[in-house]
Amino acid sequence: MLVTGATGRVGRIVIDRLLDAGVPVRALTRRPEAAATLPAKVEVFAGDLTVPESLDPALRGAGAVFLVWTAPPRTAEAVVERLAAHVRRVVFLSSPHRTPHPFFQQPNPMAVLHADIERLIAATGLESTIIRPGMFASNSLAWWAPAIRSCEVVRWPYGAAESAPVDDRDIAAVAARTLCQGGYIGGDYVLTGPESLTQAAQVGVIGDALGRRIAFEELTPDEFRSLWEGTVPGSAVDMLLAAWSAAVGRPAYLTTAVADILGTTPRTYRQWAVDHAIAFTKGS
To answer: Which residues form the NAD(P)-binding domain (predicted)?
Structure first.
């Protein structure tokens, strides 16, 4: 099995799950030095999605690929053609752009790219499985950890917007299961956590895990844009604001896909917060 995005937040865990299942694993990374962070049993290949021919050594004899797209769209067609030439099967980490809930129906350039890649995969005749995580629980680290570590107020827009954060470990476990076991070819799975929580409630859950109250202050959309200017592309900020606005007062879209595939209840956001509490403390 070849895992792309091998050092990322999902790909790295996919590697561990495949190794636990006794499956030989190859890892694709743009940075050869990243091999030091991977288990010794993993066969590491240097390659870059923006240079499709660089993937050939890793693909030869791989059988199946976990595809995480981390590059601009221009080489997507050439990469998918190479996958089809070398392997039988691909599990693609996409997004829930087909989901009717308004949270997922806002203009989103990444969702457009994901839809294009799905069409390319379907056109090749590759055996494929599409997994579509909703809101990643780990987004909280990028969004709120800096303020929480500094014991500051979390200043954020649309505190009443609801989502169902899904644990990265559950996403990775589903990816590994669908890669190495039969019965999932042609599958299309939206992955969510088990409960709908407002953003303000999620911050409160992190506070519970840390044993202290974390203050939450509502920002206006314009204040949020100013806060993230120069850090996050404006299109991404607009997409998030539109999605959160659409989710205010609407329970999050929930599925049973994680439980259906793994046979276990998906981790709650509270479990995720407890397990990652150290990341919200000073010095982490």
So the answer is: 5-139
What is the structure's pLDDT at 283?
73
Beta-carbon count within 10 A of 43 CB: 13
For residues 1 and 26, the answer to whether their CB atoms sit within 8 Å is yes
**pLDDT tens, position by position, 195-219:** 999 999 999 999 999 999 999 999 9
Candidate CATH numbers 3.40.50.1000, 3.40.50.720, 3.30.70.270, 3.40.50.300; the one for domain 2-137+166-193+253-267: 3.40.50.720
**Dihedral angle, C-alpha 108, 246, 187, 81, nearest 10 °:** 0
* pLDDT for the residue 282: 78
Contact 59, 2 (CB under 8 A): yes
Which residues of the chain, if any, have pLDDT below 50?
none
> CA dihedral in degrees (227, 205, 134, 83; nearest 10)?
90
**Is the CA virtual torsion 9, 255, 265, 26 positive or negative?**
negative
Q: Are strands 154-157 and 216-219 parallel, antiparallel or unpaired?
A: parallel
Helix (H, G, I), strand (E, B) or coil at 111: helix
93, 68 Cβ separation under 8 angstroms: yes
Q: Which helix (H) or strand (E) holds 65?
A: strand 64-67
Which pLDDT value is given to residue 53?
97
pTM assigned to the model: 0.96
* 43: three-class secondary structure by DSSP: strand
Q: Report the largest interatomic distance among the alpha carbons of the chain, rounded to a whole angstrom.
A: 55
Q: What residue ranges do the domains of the chain occupy?
A: 2-137+166-193+253-267
Dig out the tokens for 279 from the structure.
């990341």
